[in-house]
Amino acid sequence: MTNSASALRTGSSRKIRRAVMLAAAIAVTAPLVGTAPPAVAADAPKIDKDKVYGSEQDVVARMEGTDGMKDKDGNPVPGYAPVEQAESVMGYPKGIDRDKKGAIVDPVTPEDVHNRWAKPDPNEEKAKFDNKQALADAKQAVVDAKAAAQKYADDKKNHPAPLREVAKQLADSTLTDPDVRGDTKDDAIYGRGGSEIGAEHAEMHCAGKHAAAPGGRVDQNAAKANPCVFVGKLDQKDGSKFPKVDGGSGIAGGGKKTYSVETQSTEEDSTTSGWSAGGKLTTKVTSTPAGDKGGAAPEVNGEVSFTYSYSSTATHKVTTSQKDQTEVDFPSDKKGSLQGRRDGAYYIGYIITRKINDISENDQGKESLIAIPARVYVQSPQSSTSVTYFKYQE
Predict the structure, then answer these.
(1) Angle, CA 299 vertex, CA 296 and CA 305 arms, to 5°
(2) What per-residue confidence (pLDDT) applies to 317?
(3) SS3 (DSSP) at 114
(4) Cβ atoms of residues 207 and 91 within 8 Å
(5) What contacts 27, CB < 8 A, 6 or more positions away?
(6) CA–CA separation, 380 and 38 (whole Å)
(7) 3-state DSSP call for residue 96?
(8) Could you give the 3-state DSSP secondary structure of residue 15?
(9) How far apart are the C-alpha atoms of 214 and 43, rounded to whole Å?
(10) What's the CA gap between 287 and 298, in Å, rounded?
(11) How much is the mean pLDDT over the chain?
(12) Which pLDDT value is given to residue 332?
């Protein structure tokens, strides 16, 4: 399914390809400009203080807006963070889970993508997965990626001209059959093999960067971007929609407890990538009294961090800092706690990127498409907060 490893580039080949890509780039400009969010989702609170929830279904229904809640005038209250069945992300997705060392956690394969695009029918015999099916799925991803790129390119109001031009390069491609990679880590665009001089991986390629030259210098094109789109469907794996975030210890036997939450979002610097990639969210919960029976001092729970990507349709960014506090009086026959839910969902699909063959490869200058399987957390484009907390009893 993958091409044979190409030879590492020479200094002259690097200069030639750099010149070609720089010539194709447009003058640099500001990345995605924030505008007012669509008037579809409710203004999500940091903590939902109006209700104590009693089931996971109730929490999910409020996030989606399918619980039938109405305002004082009898109008339906939209959900806090509705998510779509399919999403796209421009550029290399920030929302791929990584460990503390930056390594990808649980890289997905084409078979994972195929099996988790839809919930399996227990009465249907599972078909054997092969390269033919992988290519069919990836070809559909190419169709979806071109459509997302065209939509992005047509949006002159919210996206700068250089990035619209880069997106159009993918939208206008006549290619339909991509090179399907084996898993998320199999992502070298040039110099297949590793981090040595000459290897250029998908994340740097999508940001318009070139592999390090001798001496360690890394050059970047003017647009800070290459044609690159993630397209995926809602992952059917349990816990993929509105993933849980630690809300601290609960309290048993009834009583009052005060919860304070603080979240901080660090956005991708626009000097790093032209695409509005996303960011990293860190959240911390403090509860008083401490412990499940109550204690003297406040209890500080461990910080939880996660990365997120922006949908290609997002026209605003998340709030960079949130602070909120609530007190709740739980009944004696229930165990109460504060539970957090991320305002988004995991999608599984393919990163589709376009490359022009290097001088060190066959058919120099030839265009090709690459499909890299990936699982990506995408922030709901209808929410301006990263996490919503609920008072919960069980």
Answers:
(1) 175
(2) 74
(3) helix
(4) yes
(5) 162, 222
(6) 12
(7) coil
(8) helix
(9) 51
(10) 6
(11) 79
(12) 78
Residue 347, judged by CB atoms within 10 A of its CB (0-12, 13-18, 19+), counts as: buried
Q: What amino acid is encoded at 352 in this protein?
A: I
Both tokens of 86, joined, read 């399919």
Report the run of H or E that residue 142 belongs to, with start and end.
Answer: helix 131-154
Cβ 224 vs Cβ 207: under 8 Å? yes
Element containing residue 61 per DSSP (H, E): helix 56-64
The string of DSSP letters for 342-380 reads ESEEEEEEEEEEEEE--TTSSSTT-EEEEEEEEEEEEE-
- The pair of structure tokens assigned to 119 is 């919930």
Pairing assessment for the beta strands 367-379 and 255-267 based on DSSP bridges = unpaired
Q: Which of 110-119, 227-236, 317-326 holds the top average pLDDT?
A: 227-236
Residue 249 pLDDT > 90, yes or no?
no
Structure tokens at 116: 């988790």
Q: How far apart are the C-alpha atoms of 10 and 238, rounded to whole Å?
A: 47
Q: What is the pLDDT of residues 136-183, one digit of tens each?
A: 999 999 999 999 999 999 999 988 999 999 999 999 999 999 999 999
Tokens describing residue 53: 């929830």
Instruction: Please say if the pLDDT value at position 35 is more than 50.
Output: no
Maximum separation of any 2 CA atoms in the chain, in Å: 75
Q: Of 102 and 285, which is predicted with more confidence?
A: 102
**Residue 24 has which token pair?**
């194709």
| pLDDT tens string 295-335 | 444 454 556 788 888 888 887 677 667 778 888 888 777 78
Asked whether 71 and 255 are in contact (CB, 8 A), the reply is no
Rounded CA-CA distance 105/103 in Å is 6
